Amino acid sequence: MTSAETVFFTGGAGFIGLHVVPMLLEKGYKVRIFDNMFRGDRDAVAAFGDDVELIDQDVRYGGAVHAAMKGCSKVIHAAAVSINKSQSDPYESMDINMIGNHNVFAAAADHGVQRLVYCSSASVYGDPERLPMHEDDRLDPQTPYCISKRAGEDLLGFYQRRSGLSWIALRFFNVYGPGQKTTAYYTSVINHFVNRLKNGEPPVIDGKGEQSMDFIHVHDIARSIALALDCEQDNVPVNVGTGIDTSIKDLAEILINAVGADVAPIFNPRDVLVSRRAADVQRAKEVLGFEASIEVRKGMTDLVNAD
Predict the structure, then answer these.
(1) TM segments (predicted)?
(2) Residue 246 · residue 296 · CB < 8 Å
(3) 109-133 confidence digits (pLDDT tens)
(4) 142-197, pLDDT tens digit by residue?
(5) Are residues 153 and 105 in the same domain?
(6) By residue range, what is the domain housing residue 52?
(7) What pLDDT is stored for residue 189 in this prediction?
(8) Within this chain, do residues 180 and 120 fall inside the same structural domain, yes or no?
(9) Are residues 230 and 149 in the same domain?
(10) What is the pLDDT of residues 232-256, one digit of tens each?
């Protein structure tokens, strides 16, 4: 690979992107970030140096996407409206996530890029029928965000059949880590617990705390993206998780220990929908050579201590 090979990275100035870019530079790539900077960090991008270019533009504008992608050999598409914002404003979500998906995929097909890595989501499954959740399980997306992620995977299949586009769709589970906005959907429970604990208050858990998530550290998410750019197999969705579901009750205990608080959680007795999540991680091993490296207890403890 020559040092001139450039990765086109939509949303690359955001939370996940800023963890991926150093790995791409380490591999010898140059990076062209395409980001509307609504949630991007301009100073962090500038600190990467001359091998990282920033185009301050929006994926809704197909002409801008097409022009900016010229000369890039690979694409990472991460730009999207978040899951909670998609419910409060479905119009913007459809505009950015659906139209944006299509603009990026169509441009990649036109330019003949070697590989497109799409940041999809485990939310395409909806409430799972079984654990662990496998890539071939029934999909039942529930919000505009989740629906757009599933549609994005279908669109990739169209451009694969029509134009030979090579793609990998990474279905991220519950991402957390340093640098994440406190409004992030999947970390709201973490932030709520930590804020209460630091104020000397016990975390409040609805029901028995049996709801669970597969929390995966952003460093591992970034590794999966870097691996997907270069893996041999293509044209498949791949779960990116730890394979372990951490209940809300266990999460509270981990964070109590991390903060060093002398409290016990308070359980709010009411009926809650007990939803559980855990990734089947076999395909990630086979296709990407990926396994999560940061155990949840360590990752959460480091996150608390970094504040």
Answers:
(1) 6-25
(2) yes
(3) 999 999 999 999 999 999 998 999 9
(4) 999 999 999 999 999 999 999 999 999 999 999 999 888 765 555 678 888 988 99
(5) yes
(6) 6-173+216-240
(7) 84
(8) no
(9) yes
(10) 999 999 999 999 999 999 999 999 9
Q: What's the pTM value of the predicted model, to 2 decimals? A: 0.94
Structure tokens at 211: 């709801």
pLDDT at 3 over 60: no
Phi, psi at residue 125, to the nearest 5°?
-75, -20
Q: Report the C-alpha gap between 174 and 171 in whole angstroms.
A: 10
Residues belonging to the chain: 307
